[in-house]
């Protein structure tokens, strides 16, 4: 256990340059006294580690000292940081092992390649939860991926309905969402999202200047939220009991639930409130209201009220 912690401490100092006692204690989940003892143990083992006192001080390695594992090329370094799915690793109880491996790899990279994790994060994003479709392998994924990694503009033929449209794109990143690949690219100065399986032609162009302020994960989160909102086309007016209002977030779309809570009127003498939430369709709203049970009364639309009344009659007959 201590040997692994000493290796982690060494890697942290090699990657971060300088860290003080409290920072190391938080990272290693030990006390500052244990950190001091571990630093002393490294020094006694011949590692050139020393402490700087005063403002901005901390522990650091003697300039130029590096661990011996190195020699990775940039593509190999970037592939290394694509080799795992952190969320799944945590679910399987392997989170600490994965993080330790990433830390050792980062410490081993030669200085020109220490930005490999950042480059990967800028160009690839995994949105792990399932989202409507099964896995697929687009025919032109390799060509598009090469352009993303090399910051090359591309001329594409993109299937939009029945038409094949031509676009000049500056690809900034790829997103894998539940087996479906999406390209985030700049087109005429605006960032847009494209389904990779709808590309029919791809031709590489010249290298372009990447927008270094572009945050792929944040862009995708906004895009996904806008897409989810576009599906919510049905207004459902309801009365909710206090329990129904609490359960709303676990029953309907998150943003829709938040908007419904914010729009809720004053409680009546029984504590019930009136509000409106948005749903995808009558069928989806029907299932959501059933999940709320007697804690919700639908006021509109009328077809939904009729469907629920019919279901209530069938329930009553079934349990008579």
From TrEMBL:
PANTHER family: PROTEIN PAFC, PTHR34580. This is Transcriptional regulator. Keywords: Transcription, Transcription regulation. It comes from Saccharopolyspora karakumensis. One of its GO terms (molecular function) is DNA-binding transcription factor activity. Pfam families: HTH_11, WCX, WYL. InterPro entries: CBASS_pafABC_assoc_protein, DeoR_HTH, HTH_11, PafC-like, WCX_dom, WH-like_DNA-bd_sf, WH_DNA-bd_sf, WYL_dom. Residues 2-67 form the HTH deoR-type domain.
